[in-house]
Amino acid sequence: EAQVTQNPRYLITVTGKKLTVTCSQNMNHEYMSWYRQDPGLGLRQIYYSMNVEVTDKGDVPEGYKVSRKEKRNFPLILESPSPNQTSLYFCASGLQGNTGELFFGEGSRLTVL
Amino acid sequence: AQSVAQPEDQVNVAEGNPLTVKCTYSVSGNPYLFWYVQYPNRGLQFLLKYITGDNLVKGSYGFEAEFNKSQTSFHLKKPSALVSDSALYFCAVKDYKLSFGAGTTVTVRA
């Protein structure tokens, strides 16, 4: 089954404790992206990757890091989480060139205390 | 700069009635337009897209959308809504990047 898998789905952590949200896709997609969803703001792009070892900032990259060492994986790293990073995070993947037709993971709800 | 607006935070309709979710956009070039749906506690799912051609686009679950270049709109429609259509709907536009609207919550009452 074609899918994008995120882990963990739910996480409560404390300010400053480094965490990683993993994302894996099994569709051999070149394009992957991270979004955060906040009420009234829709989805805002954090980082994206056009292919292995190619990453770039989205609209709200501050406080986040990513890496793309393998085609299937695109982890999101919060080196020192802060309460304003409490949000619902989505990983998405798509065909080369970012056609706009994306496949989304189920989401990871992060709470930073 | 590109942008997309969904002027209604919420839309409430009775089951069996027509459903319309509004979307307007602003881009410098020819737009690629999309609709996604998000059911509770789930990720977004692609519904339909407009790239070029016929202004009326048909998608999943009986939804369709009408592209209107003069009004820069891409409204989502369904002739007869179901309770199971209750969800959060996002319009998106792609020019140089993909941008999402803030979302419209649709509630279909039985």
| Tally of separate helices of chain A | 0
Order of helices and strands of chain B: EEEEEEEEEEEE
- Fraction of residues of chain B in helices? under 10%
Main sheet summary of chain A: 7 strands, mixed
Query: Given the C-alpha coordinates, what overall shape of chain B results?
Result: globular
Beta fraction of chain A: over 45%
Question: What percentage of amino acids of chain B are in beta strands?
Answer: over 45%
What is the mean predicted local confidence, pLDDT of chain B?
94
Report how far the terminal alpha carbons of chain A are from each other: 36 Å
Assembly annotation: heterodimer
Largest interface: A-B, 20 and 20 residues
Q: Write down the Rg of chain B.
A: 13 Å
Which ranges of chain B are low-confidence, i.e. pLDDT below 50, for 5 or more consecutive residues? none
Please give the number of β-strands of chain A. Answer: 11
Question: What structural category characterises the helix and strand content of chain B?
Answer: mainly beta
Total beta strand runs of chain B: 12
Helix content of chain A: under 10%
Can you characterise this structure?
The complex is a heterodimer of chains A (113) and B (110). Chain A has strands at 4-7, 10-13, 19-25, 31-38, 42-51, 54-57, 65-66, 76-78, 87-94, 102-104, 108-112. In chain A, the strands form 2 sheets. In chain A, strands 2, 4, 5, 6, 9, 10 and 11 form a 7-stranded mixed beta sheet that branches. A 4-stranded antiparallel beta sheet of chain A has the order 1-3-8-7, with no helix packed on it. Helix content of chain A is 0%, strand content 51%. Chain A is mostly beta strands and 113 residues long. In chain B, the strands form 3 sheets. In chain B, strands 2, 5, 6, 10, 11 and 12 form a 6-stranded mixed beta sheet that branches. Chain B has a 4-stranded antiparallel beta sheet with strand order 3-9-8-7, with no helix packed on it. A two-stranded antiparallel ribbon of chain B has the order 1-4. The N and C termini of chain B lie far apart (41 Å). Chain B is 0% helix and 54% strand. Chain B is mainly beta. Chain B is globular. Chain B contains no helices and 12 strands. Chain A binds chain B through residues 4, 35, 40-45, 90, 92, 98-107, and chain B through 9, 32, 34, 36, 41-46, 49, 90, 92, 94, 97-98, 100-103.
